[in-house]
Amino acid sequence: MAADDAAFQQASLQPRVIGELESVLTLVSAIGADLGATVPPWSAARAILDVRNLEVRRIVDPAIQVKLSLCTSDHQPLSEPAHAVHDLFHELIADFG
């Protein structure tokens, strides 16, 4: 179950989804035309704000939790860039813990 689906379920709400958009530009146009709303990660919301003057609100209750996974091979060593991502990932996890 996706994090946003779980958050709706936890709040005993049922979203009315009539379509899904993948393109950020199409999404921004639809939101700007008052055709709907979205619950993007902050990085995507920040990009949308750069394109249009839209209202962004932070969801704090209920808290939305996302599971993160980092998979590595038992047989292949990590490259230097992959090792940097691995270390950064662990730093980010420590900040949330």
Structural description of this entry:
There is one protein chain. This protein folds into two domains: 1-66, no CATH class; 68-97. The longest helix has 17 residues, at 80-96. The model has no long low-confidence stretch (mean pLDDT 80). It has helices at residues 3-10, 24-32, 42-51, 80-96. It is 45% helix and 0% strand. It is mainly α.
Task: Please specify the SSE layout and strand pairing.
Layout: H1 3-10, H2 24-32, H3 42-51, H4 80-96
Oligomer: single chain
C-alpha geometry:
extended
Give me the Rg, rounded: 17 Å
Q: Domains counted in the coordinates: how many?
A: 2
Mean model confidence by pLDDT:
80
- Largest sheet: number of strands, sense, barrel closure: none
Q: Pick out the low-confidence regions.
A: none
Q: What share of residues is helical?
A: 40-55%
* Number of contiguous helices: 4
Helix and strand element order: HHHH
Secondary structure class reads: mainly alpha
What is the distance, rounded to the nearest whole angstrom, between the alpha carbons of the first and last residues?
A: 22 Å
**Range of strand content:** under 5%
What's the count of strands?
0
